[in-house]
Amino acid sequence: MRLPDVRGARPARVLVTGAGGPAAVAFMEAVDDGETELWAVDIDPHAAGLYLVDAAHRGLVPRGDDPDLVPVLVDLCSRLGVDVLVPTVDTELLPVVDASSRFAAVGTAVLASSRRSLATCLDKWALHQACVGAVPVPETHLLDTDLDGAALAWPRIVKPRSGSGSRGVELLAGPDDLVGRPRDGSLILQEVLPGTELSLDVLARADGHVVTVVPRTRLKVDSGIAVAGCTVADPALDALGRAVAARVGITSVANVQVKQAADGGHRLLEVNPRLPGSMPLTVASGVDMPTLALADVLGHPVADHVGFTPRAMVRSWRQTFLPVEEYEATGAVPVPEVAS
């Protein structure tokens, strides 16, 4: 899908962060139509996605939790005339969205949901509280000093309230396994769901209308990323994805993760309020969410509904080859100075 021109005669100029991650790579590959002008940044000169764009269109920036990140990105967007900034790293989302007015002042739109939506989704306890009673959720408890572990049924899953990629997620056999764990409210305990885990890729327009939900199985997972799976047509999963999106206010692309309970129904695990790393499968199934989301943030019409055809995917390694001098030059790109 080719995007209409913006700012006069030239194509859309898009800056993607977190170029080393699968979400950024998936986005760039989807919108790389030979017309959209792509720029990519990362904290690491080895980031694979940097080498999907022209040498003059790549650079290094501070980490997502560095207070200099937003000023550097605002400066880059201003100097380059960036039309859309696409943050793909969890730690960048809130700082970037909080600075939306600063980006707007230099003519740059941010492809992301609202702050309220992001804050809810990035905190698994806040997400549970927002959705309990409205959508099916697993039994969940906050691990604090008030929790009586002996009163719970075991085993249980323990996970951080914030974080991604299954980091810090463990199966606990009984209350003795809670000994030594912080009871400061930074962890949650959830019932064990024995069934299949699925991801629901959701696209909602800026007006909140959900355009489509594409469920996909996670048949094989490596470091939190599905490397084999297939998209499935299921009205119940479609309805669940739409209900979650409405509840938390998704207005862009998000990934809703669910798992099957013992009764056969699906329960909400978490919502990743950004582009998912396995987006290529959704695109191959007929829903080019990156391009549609980009069109929406640029103010172009996006259909009320986009259907898909179930497809299967197995991922493999791929390589990018380039001159040594070009590779070395990328590592030498300095972080732009922040104007005082």
From TrEMBL:
Keywords per UniProt: ATP-binding, Nucleotide-binding
Upper classification of the organism: Bacteria, Bacillati, Actinomycetota, Acidimicrobiia, Acidimicrobiales
Gene Ontology MF, one: ATP binding
The protein, known as: ATP-grasp domain-containing protein
Signal sequence extent: none
Pfam assignment, any one: ATPgrasp_Ter
PROSITE patterns: ATP_GRASP (PS50975), CPSASE_2 (PS00867)
Start and end residues of each ATP-grasp domain: 127-298
